[in-house]
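Why this split exists: single-chain examples teach little about how molecules sit against one another. For that reason, every record in the complexes split bundles all components of an assembly together and asks for one structure covering all of them. Below is a record exactly as it appears in the raw files.
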Amino acid sequence: MTAPFVFDPTPASIPPADTVYRLKEIPNGPVNSHPLNPLDFILRAAQIYPDKVALVHPNVDYPVQYTFAVWYVLHSMYVLHQLKDIRAQRIQNLAYALIRAGIKPGDRVAVIAPNSPLIADAHHGVIAARAILTPINTRLKPSEVAYILEHSGSSLILVDHEYTNLIPAGIKVPIVVSKDTGRVGDPYETFLDEGRRFSEEKSWGGLVAEPDEHAGAVLCYTSGTTGRPKGVLTTLRGSYLAGVANAFECQMHRDSTYLCKRYRILPMFHAAGWTFPWSNVFAFAKQITLRTVNYSQIWDHFLHSGVTHYCGAPTVQVKANQQTNDNKPLISSTDWRGKRSTSTQTATERDCCNREKAGAAPTAHLIAELEKIGIKPTYGPFTRNYDQPHWANISLEERARFMARQGQAFATAFGVRVVYPPTDDEKNPILRDVPRDGKTVGEIVTKGNIVMKEYFRDPEATRKAFLGGHFRSGDLAVWHPDGTIAVVDRSKDIIISGGENASSLAIEQELASHPHVLEVSVVARPHLKWGERPMAFVILHPQHAKKWAGRHHEFGNDLKEHARARLPGFACPEWVEVVPELPKTSTGKILKTELRKVVAKL
Amino acid sequence: MTAPFVFDPTPASIPPADTVYRLKEIPNGPVNSHPLNPLDFILRAAQIYPDKVALVHPNVDYPVQYTFAVWYVLHSMYVLHQLKDIRAQRIQNLAYALIRAGIKPGDRVAVIAPNSPLIADAHHGVIAARAILTPINTRLKPSEVAYILEHSGSSLILVDHEYTNLIPAGIKVPIVVSKDTGRVGDPYETFLDEGRRFSEEKSWGGLVAEPDEHAGAVLCYTSGTTGRPKGVLTTLRGSYLAGVANAFECQMHRDSTYLCKRYRILPMFHAAGWTFPWSNVFAFAKQITLRTVNYSQIWDHFLHSGVTHYCGAPTVQVKANQQTNDNKPLISSTDWRGKRSTSTQTATERDCCNREKAGAAPTAHLIAELEKIGIKPTYGPFTRNYDQPHWANISLEERARFMARQGQAFATAFGVRVVYPPTDDEKNPILRDVPRDGKTVGEIVTKGNIVMKEYFRDPEATRKAFLGGHFRSGDLAVWHPDGTIAVVDRSKDIIISGGENASSLAIEQELASHPHVLEVSVVARPHLKWGERPMAFVILHPQHAKKWAGRHHEFGNDLKEHARARLPGFACPEWVEVVPELPKTSTGKILKTELRKVVAKL
């Protein structure tokens, strides 16, 4: 178990008793309008619930927890001793420390960290300094990190001690290391202390509010499965409205607890945690941060920490659902259900995304599995499938098929459309909707407040992405008569088999319904006669793997038969390969590029 | 009981099957930002839940109910026969009908109606025509209505048949009368039908989206207790953000039912129903509209219609809580609690208001009474009292005292401050906060997105209200160390007794804790020695009125003794007058001006 919460808080963390959570006024700003900024959330939470636990970081050598503002931590299952440390004060100190370090409005501040107080602080503190947060995926190679630091032009790096090796040698910008202790002597804490001293006790009133709500908030880089990563810049306005929408759609509130786990559950470095670092604060909810992948820890928090919400990509859910680290189920589904008073919600990753593209579509099979153990999936952050009254009268499997659709636009998002894709050389194409027939395949496009500001320093990519006055997702989908959209595939993942377009996603969905399949990915493999044919890579369900040991060819035939009963001939896999694992990005997306490389060598 | 839902829908109400809920694009609008507009809510609801019941209008000769969009009504306790009428289509028809009638963007459209489909439609349809909704209080005198019609420059009047007498003879603008039938032949339905024909089936795509989110949304006139009513103009942006905040703060969702009742519960003509006509739609909730005052109907809906939310001013709650029309409690509190699975919430009227000032502060006594019968009060629309964990360990009465404070800023609102009031002749006063000591009295000011745009056609009043770069509420309050504000009084209601400032509200609060007091109001009465002294007007609790019959003087002494045990001498009422009722505005505010007239004649 982890150490108890005993430590001396840094003196700089204790704010003056009369702290006013209000920034310096924008001179001559309008009376009846203020710029939307997710920084508002923490100021309001610190004002209204100063003593409420905001952040718990338990499963580490130096556990910490922070309230929204000021005083003693009141109660928690983790706490043995009272603490005097402070969230909003730390955020204020961070903002001052950045300004002291020369950070100017619009500068980029890079953060390389797993889910931890450092990156949580940064979501608020960096924008409090009017800078742009640039979270970097900790699973990248040093050369990729170097590219992002260079491309973003980051002026300062906040880095977790475990990841200092990712920073290129000889880099010229200041680096602040966090040892993730929260204790006096930690370099990050010293940095915060210096910020506090620099503030000269001017408190929040010494910081200037950003007057432009269209200013940049977060610069996230794509974990690009091909090519150089692109920098997706979001706006303060978009982040505010997405944060509010997520809190509303997930019905988060003061008594909610959000589990924020690295890799296997949504990491904050990925798309700014889909704005949940802000949504939690907006709703006055508690968030638990976990640095490492450990399924027994996850289940421990599910069972004992009152977790009500978490996020994860579909492939992640499979693991959280099915197995512990050593591939054995930790608890039975009955245990889980019996101990949860309210159903846990999960925002699974969606194909039609927030600011830029997000990951894979959840399969009907996965949704059904999650529901069985009392987890209610919802989706964000740009579309959501709204359950309909008539679903009460249909089977779980049927319902899961409806639910696997990507649905309709989220609260505060603008509508989503499926259109005939324009060609890149059209100047000002007028986008035309495909018919809502559930058959015609088009491209998902959207527009409005929650769309990214731009691809940073890449006007050509921005122009292409915004062709036709909409954000082009690159996702292929059909539009159903009821207005819901259903992703067919990423345009590059479609398999052209005998002149027919076979959706790799649709094939995967059918193969996943085979009871012995845990995970499956399908890519095109060249074929002399048909041009391309589908090839399936399969992870067997641990409960059935033994049965097929040494007989993978026979399993392949079994699966092909399963497919033939459900799919048109051109979409049936020609080849089935049983594998122990699938290549994935740090956010759990299957790397089809890697599978294609395997295929190319066959 | 009411008639069953049998009628022929007007053919114009049925939209084409392939309706796309999307307005005409703003040419060259940005990809990553769209103007905030509460019209989005109905378009999204009609798209996502076309078949869900949006509006029920039951207790009338011609009951109707409408879904969010298109098809048959699926189920309801009211429905005996399937309907084919449509909310979003009616709204679309209304927008076209207004445009056909010559309404241009920014024009004012007056609505004179009790809570009914007419005014609900207008909240969406008028802004869909890019016009400004001007709801007029149905309790005003014809001369006052004439003033508002004249001052607002309304270009068209939508009026309920019961209130046509309020419209001045010879007025030159078109008048559309609703007989509140929803049936073919009703002049309002004919007006909608003409709109449909005029649309030439261009549907929503034939309507242009308002490009400016700061454009006017609703123009509400103050029910001014003194002087001419002032026109409070709100913006689309503010209405959108307030609507979202109300839905979030009240935890409304798809299964919520909002009771929208005239006079005794918040009428829509009052401050646009505090944005609830939009919040309900944003949350996909159902709203029930009631035209008339009838407590047994209210209780009937509380018990049988699944009502989860309603709004009402504090004085209104007293009646809803305590008595039926004939002053007898309708059901015991146990009945009510036993039959409600979730606690009903009520947004009581608050002193620190949305766009302009709102009504009276709720007393601790009232809050305690409501809680006893399972009603959980929350407040809106600009501040709210957030309950704190430590309240779990204090008595109901103590807690009610905390809850009676006006609290802190609402979600999406900007912060609220209590400042030393500037004088009118200062040019650009810098507002200074009063100390947070719970004692120093200052004026409540605020700013930001949810503040009104302006006093319509009254730049001088706007200048005064916006002095110091904030909206001045005119409410006097203290600021507590925990950041909550507590209204002391309207500045004009303070009683200067022997040089001391006595808060009429604080006196009322203490007098209301006398178990025989149902309602009480306190005003200043001139006094030779002390300048002014408090005079109390009291309605006795019906259960105790008999006891004091003919002995009001004795009751007065009893109440004075009660006061002396709780209040400083200068704040104790010198006179107590038992009255059968108190003069009130249509929204339930006690008209102290009327009481002062009574006092002046003594």
